[in-house]
Amino acid sequence: MTPESLISSPLLTGLAITLIHFLWQGALVALVLKALLSLISYQKSQLRYALSSAAMLANLLLPVMTFFLIYDIEYRQTASLVHALPLLDQNLYLEQIQTHAWYLPWLEYLPVLAMVWLVIVFSLAAKLMIELHHVNKLPQQGCSPADSALQTRFQHLITTIGLTKKVTLLVSHTSHVPMAIGWLKPVVLLPFSMISGLSPQQLDMLLLHELAHIRRHDYLVNFFQTLVEILLFFNPAVAWVSKQMRNEREYCSDDIAVQHCGDALAYAHTLTDTASL
């Protein structure tokens, strides 16, 4: 395929039209989610998270459906004919063609828009892969095994929360916040400063929160969520929906931690003390 035929490809034109349509589609999805969340109590984090996840899935499916609706036989024939005509004949054809398609006057520029989108998406995807590589290297950098007492409590928490897979606990001298890394072989990193700055009960609460993320497969879900953000980076509404989804995900893990520690007030104090550290 020559560069000229690539630029005039109906495939790229259909992609560009799809991206433009998604500007209002994504905004509509965000408005519907905003309306639904305003009617649901913050205490129902699972339901709020499910709605946010459904909105994120809708953001992914709508462009796919729109593309196949746009890229039909009639459009391909129209676009191919217009691009095949000389420039003067194009204007004459566009005046004579019986269609109300809004994109025809800008038909020759739309593939360029799609190509710019592709370049940015590939760049963001490469950046994500580099970041994932650095994150997955964290357990190998400045980490040491937890002492036997903490490791015993950690294994008890794994059983308590209902996890069947093996989870590794490491004490990190470089990380500033607790985090759960990985999906198939998950690792929990606990900052060294928190071991000396928090009580054993508070450490258990933080570990319960991270184990809740692992039980819910949040690491994997967050990866796919980030891919959707990359594909639809140009729409601020998608970023808002994604932020809501991440907030509700944290609340879900908080609820699981409180459920097993049995003291919401103590858990709140733990979060405050963690923030101060």
DSSP E strands, number: 4
Widest beta sheet: strand line-up: 1-2-4-3
Largest sheet: 4 strands, mixed
Helicity, in percent?
A: over 70%
- Oligomeric organization of the protein chains: single chain
> How large is the share of residues in beta strands?
5-15%
Secondary-structure map:
Layout: H1 3-7, H2 10-39, H3 45-70, H4 73-84, H5 87-96, H6 110-137, E1 143-145, H7 148-161, E2 168-172, E3 179-181, E4 187-191, H8 192-197, H9 200-215, H10 218-231, H11 236-261, H12 264-276
Parallel strand pairs: 2-4
Antiparallel strand pairs: 1-2, 3-4
Helix pairs in contact: 2-3, 2-6, 2-11, 3-11, 7-9, 9-11, 9-12, 10-11
List keywords for this structure.
4-stranded mixed sheet; 12 helices; 4 strands; 6% strand
Short recap of the structure:
The protein has 277 residues and is mainly alpha-helical.
